[in-house]
Structures are given as C-alpha cells and as structure tokens.
User: What shape does this take?
Amino acid sequence: MTAGTKEDPWELATPPGTSTYVMFRDDATDPPVLVCQVGSTTLTYQARAIADLHAWLLEQGDWVLLGAADEKKPAAPGTVEAWGRAEDNPVGGWYGLRKGYRGRFGMYLPPLLEALGLAELTHEARNNRMRALRK
Assistant: This one.
C-alpha cells in the first residue's frame, strides 16, 4: 500500500475502471485535505471524509448507490454523493472544498475507502454501490 503522501500518492481507478487518478492526504493544511488529481484537474475534499463516510456506511448496514454527480447537478437521494453534500452530514454540507469542483464525491472517495480496506465496491459500467467493511 502506498503512503498516501504527495511523494507517494494512492493510485486509484474510478469504480467502472474507466479512468485512473491519484489522491494524497495533505496534513499541512487546516483542516487536513485530500487532494485528488484527475488529469489536469485538482479536486480537494476534507480529509475527515474518510472516517465520516465509513461511519455513515456502517450505519446504513447494506449496499448504497454511489450516485456520482458534478456540483451543479442534483444528487440522487440516499446515495453517497447526496450524503457528501447534505446539510445533515457531520460537516453540515459539502466535503468538497474547491468551488465549482465540490461534486464527484461519489466517484472519487469510494475507491479510496476500498483501497484502505474500509469498504467494498461493485465495479460495473453503471450504478455502482458500496458497503462498509468492519475494521
């Protein structure tokens, strides 16, 4: 397993396996962030999303649709994407930090949780789901 640092980032693939990207944790910021580099696009998410998403998935107790969507598009209710921007999640809204690029939580965070051994994902062409693994 890679260290998840800028020098040794996590190398991940989207749930359908159609695109690759890298992520790393930056603890030098306040609050700490996850930096997601997809081609020339950089997205950032609050690093606490890892633990918060895992806890939420444990509460759900079963498979949850990912429902990835861009920031300007609505997220389907009950999906990982909807939770990642919901006013009743632990941060009271968006985990994404870069205005205009706060969406796609349901695309880029689930593979990281899978790589960390915190979740299981399906890897179909569409309508992927995830569920928590107990640690």
The first helix runs from residue 49 to 60. The longest strand covers residues 20-26. The mean pLDDT is 96.
